[in-house]
Amino acid sequence: MIEVQGLTKTYGAHRAVDDVTFSARPGRVTGFLGPNGAGKSTTMRMMVGLTPPSSGSATVCGVPFAALPNPPREVGVLLDASAQHAGRTGREILAVAAQTAALPRRRVEEMLELVSLTRTEADRRVRDYSLGMRQRLGIAVALIGDPDVLVLDEPANGLDPAGIRWMRDLLRGFAADGGTVLLSSHLLHEIEVVADDIVVIGRGRIVAQGTKAELLEQAGTVVAPAEATDGAALVRACAGAGLDVVRLGDGALRVEADGTTVGRLAHAAGVPLGRLQAADGAGLEEMFLQLTADTQREDATHPEGAAA
Ligand SMILES: Nc1ncnc2c1ncn2[C@@H]1O[C@H](COP(=O)(O)OP(=O)(O)OP(=O)(O)O)[C@@H](O)[C@H]1O
């Protein structure tokens, strides 16, 4: 279990993390999603005692990270896969990690096998590792103490498609065994395929959180009139009922309401529909971009923007 309460970090006048509260529960994968610079890494660094918070608190397994008697046995942490000593071999890094946590030496070979680093690769210096190999080594270090909790910052960076699949299966398996997983990403798809719960952060603040199913529901309904000329009437009908409406660009709209509500409004307005469906993943992406729009470097929202 991870509990974060009111975590805030200011750098001068800049609030990098602003009153962040959420929890990551056992048996579930929690995705921490936000665009570049949203505050994910800073939040995670505060959770594991690497950055002192300006205010607020975080506990892992019920206590602050710094109070854990043998952290690697409780929490596996991967924050920066390139932070390992570049002159050491992968095997040496794992050996040091095992020794620090008072673990038997055999854990080193077990972890190498788990993350599929070959004998030759394990004996190579980390400076000669690809980013994907560094991520695998980082996962091995995180798992070496057989922890209950995993905190992983962008663990899929640098992994090839097979590696991403491997990582996903590993995290799902970890959670299925009762473990708690918190992983960050700036890519919705990466989070969507693996997470049970999603916390969305933008410009240091939580902008949405809930189970994936709840967020998909909030993503609303995609609707399009049978006749393109009815587009404006459909927008008026939905917006007039106080619903948020976003034009999707192909004549369709995303309306923040369930299908029955939208269907009734269209019917009342005398607009025959050509399409009415749950917004699902594409809707979630639209919602994510909208929620974090003011934190995106590029204006990723559709040029037509919000219609209401
Ligand atoms: N040591 C620091 N000093 C000043 N500002 C910082 C420091 N560390 C982070 N920041 C700022 O805090 C904000 C959040 O950064 P953070 O690295 O937590 O974002 P992120 O969500 O992890 O981004 P990314 O997806 O790009 O890794 C950014 O504006 C960043 O410039």
Automatic annotation (TrEMBL):
Domain of life, per lineage: Bacteria
Any one GO molecular function term: ATP binding
One family name in Pfam for this protein: ABC_tran
Limits of the ABC transporter domain: 2-228
UniProt keywords, alphabetically: ATP-binding, Nucleotide-binding, Transport
SUPFAM superfamilies, A to Z: P-loop containing nucleoside triphosphate hydrolases
Keyword Nucleotide-binding in record: yes
PROSITE patterns per the UniProt record, alphabetical: ABC_TRANSPORTER_1 (PS00211), ABC_TRANSPORTER_2 (PS50893)
Membership in a protein family: Belongs to the ABC transporter superfamily.
PANTHER family noted in UniProt: ABC TRANSPORTER, ATP-BINDING PROTEIN (PTHR43335)
Protein name, entry field: ATP-binding cassette domain-containing protein
